[in-house]
Amino acid sequence: MYRDIDSKISAEHQALKQSVHVFARDVLRPAAVGLDKIPEPADMIAQSSALWPTLQACYREGLHTALIPRELGGLGLDGLSLHIALEELGWGSADFAISLAVTAFPFYSVAMMGDAALQDEIVRPFVADREARHIGCWAITEAAHGSDHFLIHAQAFHDAQIRGETTAQRDGDAWIINGQKSRWISNGTIATHAVVHVAIDPTLGLAGGGVAYIPLDLPGVGKGAPMNKLGQRALNQGALIFHNVRIPQRFMLADVDVYKPVLDGTLAFTNAAMGAIFTGVARAAFEEALSYTKNRVQGGKPICEHQLVQKHLFDMFTQVETSRALSRAAMIHCRSGQAGALAYSTAAKVYCTQAAFEVADTALQLFGGNGLNKAFLIEKLFRDARASLIEDGSNDVLALSAARQLFADYALAEEK
User: Fold this and answer.
1) Beta 297-298 vs 301-302: how paired, if at all?
2) What is the distance between the alpha carbons of residues 96 and 159, in angstroms, rounded to a whole number?
3) What confidence tens digit (pLDDT) does each residue in 88-119 have?
């Protein structure tokens, strides 16, 4: 297992790293590899699938509560601890790491924005769950709105001609939800609860949104079929449909007045989490390549003794270490609640996912023909890493979004 060279990593953090690493190695990775081989997505989420005992094992470890504050019974991990856990989970399985991060979203949102009564009603049962009966999802992506949700600092975000497709209309002391979220909703096909981004005031464009907590067993909620996709196949994804779904006023956690800062904070966390998870994927690919090149003999000696291979391995190692440094700093910054977190988190997401793909690509090259063989883990890691370049926002658009924020931040600093 990777040994952290940071002298600031305490014995407690090392113990967390070791514990999550062993769980990821012995439970998550074998399950993800097995699920990856199932051809039909519907069979992956069937009650007889290995998905369910694996999720239950995660819940028994309390991993689903990593984001939930300690005063509500959760682990309440700080930035460094959360990064350590997500990197190890990503090392074992990007699929399950993302699923676990997303499953807490509705309950974490209530913990942060709901009143005490709502927290007791919704958050505490989730924390106490050890059977994966409470599974959350984050419903933001729509057919016409994906990466553009990140363009908070662009005029297009406030353009009234660009409107959210899932709407919320006030009806007395309730809200009526209509619309559809895209097939990219992680956990969408198995989720029991959702935190849903809705359009409240269309005259404000995407800025006129809100955040609603919605139990998915309410009348009018529908789900699409699970997506049959290239990578991260153990992470089920599917559409959510809302037809005159009625929720009480208290389930609208954030309205137009606070939507922008809430969205800013949410996107900062999701990007930081992606950076941490795919640092783990990059490390997994590097370690697979290192092990393989020590044992693969060609030209009369292990290929790790050839200089070109050594240069590739060194470059991969460097990408892993720089990914960790950036993503860890971004997660700590994000969890501390400091200003400007979104730009740093976006940089971490873009850099680390790109690094994960490049490391996996180089590793596959070093494996030669075996890199294309599904019997080798690197083949799955390559597919998983490729998905990350468009996951939680296309890297190209994310870079433009962060650039706009940097322009604004630096202009403000110069004025001072």
Assistant:
1) antiparallel
2) 37
3) 999 999 999 999 999 999 999 999 999 999 99
